[in-house]
TrEMBL record:
Family: Belongs to the class I-like SAM-binding methyltransferase superfamily. RsmB/NOP family.
Sequence ranges of Acidic residues compositional bias: 279-288
Keyword Transmembrane helix (UniProt): no
PANTHER family: NOP2 YEAST -RELATED NOL1/NOP2/FMU SUN DOMAIN-CONTAINING, TRNA (CYTOSINE(72)-C(5))-METHYLTRANSFERASE NSUN6
Any one GO MF annotation of this record: RNA methyltransferase activity
Gene3D superfamilies per UniProt: PUA domain, Vaccinia Virus protein VP39
Binding site for S-adenosyl-L-methionine: C430, A431, A432, P433, G434, G435, K436, D454, D481, D623
Protein's recorded name: SAM-dependent MTase RsmB/NOP-type domain-containing protein
Listed Basic residues bias regions: 301-310
Record region (Disordered): 196-314, 483-609, 749-770
Residue spans of biased composition, Gly residues class: 289-298, 543-557, 749-764
Highest taxon of the lineage: Eukaryota
UniProt lineage: Eukaryota, Viridiplantae, Chlorophyta, core chlorophytes, Chlorophyceae
GN (gene name): PLESTMB000721
Length: 850
């Protein structure tokens, strides 16, 4: 293991176009702060108290009671502005000493790492690489693996990789190691810090065998390609090829003398037990014909199990010479002579050199499984954090069921801003897993009706489960593409019976894949806000995005009859969907979450209409599927420009339906969990410009916690490299104007119907709207007037964020007065310390024509 850095400081790579656009939008300094904040978890955890069951004060008292007399009472408190929120205080990053790990290390997947940062333990499927000889009970340094550059969420390391614990040795120590162990001797000072490799394959009997019993990554063992790639990726260049040319020497069936690898390996032997021993026997053979560099499978047979070790060692020049496979039959002297150096921080592994994990260490952990078990198991606890870099508040698992749920604070703000009256009829267009829906129900004192849509069948079950768990009865959930929920004139009516996929939805699957908050086994549709619908018994930090998939509701006492559950349900599940559901349930079980009842029937309420006539609802929440660029922590930012455009297009389509379904006089809240202005301010602009005769923007609160929105016209991603005028200066100055305008407008808004009307005649010019005349960022008013059209887009070319395919153009955000009325939660604001989030509220003043 390389020297573990004391500080957590991951380098998160963004798509260059997206980064450039966001830098332009936020300014360099704010972007850097934001990006850093996004790579870390918030220090506080928010529990929403189910006020239908208990009070926040009661929750605080119970938590303190559980924490015991010695605990700091400041660790739990009721939020001063959001009385239904109880805040638990965490801390970090902490300096962690990894000395106790004695060089042992485990590298986990990004998703598992993100879950760890929020307080979760590591489950077996999240483990990618383990030092040889790690046994149950061992302390290990826990690091997060990087993703392949440009490889989506494909990790650089394949699950099943064995790391070779590298301790500097000297030739005499090597000689003393005895027969059967070839050690590569570090010959430079740099190498001394990095590497000495116990090179016989038997150092880890099944190290390169994955959970299916096959060689984990054939290309990586070819002695060439993977190492060359890695060398290229790290600038290792020229040295790689000659080193690879050393080729792959033989492997064997011999066992490493355990005593040669020290106590840890001996421990592994003792702990691994008969199963591991049997596996060793099974894999003990496998002579690879001379230099199996191609990694070829046996002709006509299953892939040969191989045990070659690719070790990299330190050479005199300190440069990378990857891909050297050590022949265990070679003498120490031979090997040492052939061995070039790994640069400092690099680690030898069964897949070749592994890049330094600088800044990616997340804590000291104790292995709950041996290395072999971690790789073989498909589920189960693999590692528990002993000394995490970020400490989440202590668990509050003892609270009665249905008392609290983990929910991000801004999510509460969105529902509270809508503030539906008891007895009203509300539509939650994108409701699963139901966090905001159930809060709306609590605000309505469970009186009235909330229709809750989600386009994903299994997620509708989650809404049902959560409502049951909370004892809410006014929610009626059904599977529905909310964009199709508007009744069309007779003759055009689609039967929205729960199968509603099809036209215009190409966007959603792509969005879902990326918007999902770690739902690896999910059905592909992410909830985007990282909230797991777990009530009562919640363990802070463990449910939110924990290792993939918030999971569903389920379990819980279900005294209340949820309207969703009744009605003539019928089987609608295809074989593919059934398998997907099975995987989803298995994943939930692995994480210790009780899945909802098996889905055998459509959970949709059969009493609900297939679609609704215009003006059907008193209040409407559009918590839109989005790019989720506000979620924390994120150790990889994958969103590309096309994806962001797709998100914005889908949001506008949903807005087009929302504005019609709401009755005149009703309120609409639009929210996202992204920092992308193209999905936030530009979408508000779209609605105001297109429906300005029927809608006005009103203050999105109380409570008011977030900052103002972004002001002005802005270059798109494509233009970001050549900003128009001083565009990047705009946010700072404009937000100051917005802040002062905010106070004025929020005060003037009174009961929510006030504020500054945006529009009132179609095509809003943000340079003129509102009380604070302003110069639109970086563009003259004439320029703006020339280009603005409904939708906040620039004439001629579709906005990169809002259009259906245009790559250039510009987008228009808000006037200062408008910006003051929305809430933009900045994840880098230390006082807020929330995820990135956006909330806007509109009042419908007249019917939408057409
Ligand atoms: C941000 S999440 C909603 C979170 C939810 N409001 C809560 O607070 O728990 C967005 C949800 O929208 C759903 N969704 C995406 N496109 C949809 C559509 N066209 N119609 C209905 N639901 C959709 C996704 O399945 C996802 O569950």
């Amino acid at each position: 293991m390389a020297e573990a850095p004391k500080e957590f400081s991951p380098e998160v790579i963004w798509d260059p176009e997206v980064e450039s656009y966001l830098r332009g939008a936020l300014g360099d300094e704010r972007f850097d702060r934001t990006a850093a904040a996004l790579s870390r978890p918030p220090r506080t955890t928010c529990m929403r108290v189910n006020t239908l069951r208990t009070t926040p004060q009661e929750v605080v008292a119970r938590v303190l009671q559980q924490l015991g007399p010695g605990c700091d009472p400041g660790v739990v408190r009721v939020h001063p502005k959001v009385p239904c929120a109880v805040i638990l205080q965490g801390s970090g990053p902490h300096e962690v000493s990894y000395e106790a790990a004695g060089g042992r290390e485990v590298i986990v997947s990004r998703k598992a790492g993100e879950a760890v940062l929020r307080g979760a333990p590591v489950f077996a499927p999240g483990v990618l690489a383990v030092s040889s000889g790690v046994a149950r009970g061992d302390l290990v340094a826990l690091a997060v693996g990087r993703e392949k550059p440009g490889g989506g969420d494909t990790p650089e390391l394949t699950r099943g990789t064995t790391l070779y614990t590298c301790t500097a040795t000297n030739p005499s120590a090597t000689a003393a190691a005895g027969a059967g162990v070839a050690e590569v001797t570090a010959t430079t000072a740099a190498a001394a810090a990095a590497t000495t490799v116990p090179a016989t394959d038997t150092a880890a009997p099944d190290a390169d065998v994955n959970s299916d019993g096959l060689v984990a990554d054939q290309p990586g063992r070819s002695g060439g390609s993977r190492q060359e790639q890695q060398a290229a990726a790290t600038g290792g260049s020229g040295a790689a090829a000659p080193a690879a040319a050393h080729g792959v020497a033989a492997t064997e069936g011999r066992r490493r003398p355990r005593e040669a690898s020290g106590a840890a390996a001996a421990g592994a032997k003792a702990e691994d037990g008969p199963a591991a021993a049997a596996a060793e026997e099974e894999e003990g053979e496998g002579e690879e014909p001379g230099g199996a560099a191609g990694g070829g499978d046996r002709p006509g047979g299953r892939p040969r199990r191989r045990r070659q070790r690719h070790c990299a060692a330190a050479g005199a020049d300190g440069g990378l010479a990857a891909g050297l496979a050590v022949d265990p039959t070679a003498t120490t002297a031979d090997t040492a002579a052939a061995a070039p150096a790994l640069p400092p921080g690099w680690t030898a592994s069964s897949q070749g050199p592994v890049a330094p994990r600088r800044g990616m260490y997340v804590g000291l952990a104790r292995a709950a499984m041996s290395r072999q078990e971690m790789f073989r198991a498909r589920e189960g606890l693999a590692l528990e954090l002993v000394e995490p870099v970020f400490r989440v508040p202590p668990a509050v698992g003892g609270l009665p069921p249905g008392w609290v749920m983990l929910q991000n604070l801004p999510s509460l703000v969105a529902a509270l801003a809508l503030d539906p009256a008891p007895g009203s009829r509300v539509l939650d267009m994108c409701a699963a897993p139901g966090g905001k829906t159930t809060l709306l129900a609590a605000i309505m004192e469970d009186q009235g009706e909330i229709v809750a849509f989600d386009r994903t069948h299994s997620k509708v079950s989650e809404i049902v489960s959560l409502a049951r768990e909370l004892g809410v009865s006014c929610i009626r959930a059904r599977k529905m593409d909310a964009g199709k929920a508007l009744q069309r004139p007779t003759g055009h009516q689609e039967h929205s019976n729960g199968h509603g996929h099809g036209n215009g939805e190409a966007v959603a699957p792509a969005m879902a894949r990326q918007a999902g908050d770690g739902s690896a086994e999910d059905d592909g549709l992410g909830d985007g806000n990282g909230e797991a619908p777990r009530m009562g018994g919640a363990v802070p930090g463990r449910a939110e995005g924990g290792g993939g998939g918030g999971g569903g509701g389920g379990g819980g006492s279900a005294e209340a009859s949820v309207a969703v559950a009744k009605g003539a349900s019928r089987p609608v599940v295809s074989e593919k969907a059934r398998q997907r559901e099975e995987r989803r349930r298995a994943a939930m079980l692995r994480r210790g979450i009780t899945p909802p009842e098996p889905r055998t029937a459509n959970p949709a309420d059969a009493d609900l209409p297939a679609a609704y006539p215009p003006e059907s609802f008193d209040a409407l929440l559009l918590d839109a599927p989005c790019s989720a660029l506000g979620l924390r922590p994120r150790l990889q930012q994958q969103a590309g420009p096309l994806y962001l455009r797709q998100c914005a297009a889908a949001q506008r389509r949903l807005m087009d339906t929302a504005v019609r379904l709401l009755r005149v006089g009703g309120s609409l809240v639009y929210s996202t969990c992204t920092i992308n202005p193209g999905e936030n301010e530009a979408c508000v602009r779209y609605l105001l410009d297109k429906y300005g005769t029927s809608f006005q923007l009103v203050p999105a609160g109380p409570p008011f916690l977030g900052g103002p929105g972004l002001v002005g016209r802005h270059p798109t991603m494509a233009e970001a490299g050549r900003p128009i005028g001083a565009a990047s200066d705009a946010p700072a100055s404009a937000s100051a104007a917005a802040t002062s305008a905010r106070d004025a407008s929020a005060g003037a808004a009174g009961g929510g119907a006030g504020g500054v009307a945006a529009g009132g005649g179609g095509g809003t010019d943000p340079a003129r709207v509102g009380s604070a005349p302003m110069r639109v960022a970086g563009a003259s008013e004439a320029e703006v007037e020339a280009v603005v059209r409904p939708g906040g887009l620039v004439e001629e070319e579709e906005s990169a964020c809002g259009g259906e395919g245009g790559a250039a153009g510009g987008e228009v955000w808000l006037s200062a007065a408008e910006a003051a009325m929305v809430q933009r939660f900045d994840p880098s604001d230390p006082d807020l310390d929330t995820i990135g989030f956006f909330v806007a509220k509109f009042l419908k003043t007249a019917p939408v024509v057409g």
